[in-house]
Amino acid sequence: MKLGRLNHVGVATPSIENAIAFYRDVMGAEVIRAPFDLPKQGVKVCFVETPPSTGSGQGTQIELIEPLGESSPIHGFLAKNPAGGQHHVCYEVPDIHEAKAWFEGRGCKVLGEPRIGAHGTPIFFVHPKDMGGVLTEIMETPRNH
Ligand code: CO
């Protein structure tokens, strides 16, 4: 199996509103999808995109994540990183089940079953202890994407 390109970097923040202002004013990013709630995952999410380098045509997506609800998995992260910080990276794959079997076959702990992620396609996370300390999201991306 080949991993695809990096789709986005996930950044946890205590305030999506403040984070959007930072990415707009300092990084020159645009909101490409307005903030929305993902109640099942206990997060509020907003995608911003930094501008493309000259000629490359494609910017870079940052997923801003704010805790939603008392049991949000992001609370623990923000307790350790009160100002927010880098939370995960996300790579694209053509087939989520093939990818799950690949990582499990190499002894990497996949967290839960594939589920629909913030982009509306199947995702899963791999435990950072098996990924060099990086919480890693794997996201199925249709080939015609
Ligand atoms: Co993500």
Question: Nutshell version of this structure?
Answer:
The chain is α+β, with helices and mostly antiparallel strands. The protein has a single domain, classed as Roll (2,3-Dihydroxybiphenyl 1,2-Dioxygenase, domain 1).
How does this model look, in words?
This protein is of the alpha+beta class and 145 residues long. The chain has one domain (6-140): 2,3-Dihydroxybiphenyl 1,2-Dioxygenase, domain 1, CATH 3.10.180. The protein is built from three helices and eight strands, in the order E-H-E-E-E-H-E-H-E-E-E. An eight-stranded mixed β-sheet has the order 2-3-4-1-5-8-7-6. Strand 2 and strand 3 form a beta hairpin. The mean pLDDT is 93. Cobalt (II) ion binds at residues 8, 10, 63, 88, 90, 118, 137.
List the helices and strands and how they pair.
Layout: E1 6-12, H1 16-25, E2 30-38, E3 43-50, E4 60-67, H2 74-80, E5 85-93, H3 96-105, E6 110-116, E7 122-126, E8 136-140
Parallel strand pairs: 1-4, 5-8
Antiparallel strand pairs: 1-5, 2-3, 3-4, 6-7, 7-8
Q: What would CATH call the homologous superfamily?
A: 2,3-Dihydroxybiphenyl 1,2-Dioxygenase, domain 1
Number of strands: 8
CATH fold-level name? 2,3-Dihydroxybiphenyl 1,2-Dioxygenase, domain 1
What is the overall shape? globular
Compounds present? cobalt (II) ion
- Rg on CA atoms, Å: 15 Å
Percent in helix:
10-25%
- Topology order in helix (H) and strand (E) letters: EHEEEHEHEEE
| Whole-number tally of structural domains | 1
* Amino-to-carboxy terminus distance: 19 Å
Kindly state the mean pLDDT as a whole number?
A: 93
Top CATH class:
Alpha Beta
Sheet with the most strands, sense and barrel status: 8 strands, mixed
Gross CATH architecture? Roll
How large is the share of residues in beta strands? 35-45%
| Count, helices | 3
Strand order of the largest sheet: 2-3-4-1-5-8-7-6
Q: Low-confidence parts, pLDDT < 50 over ≥5 residues?
A: none
Structural class: alpha+beta
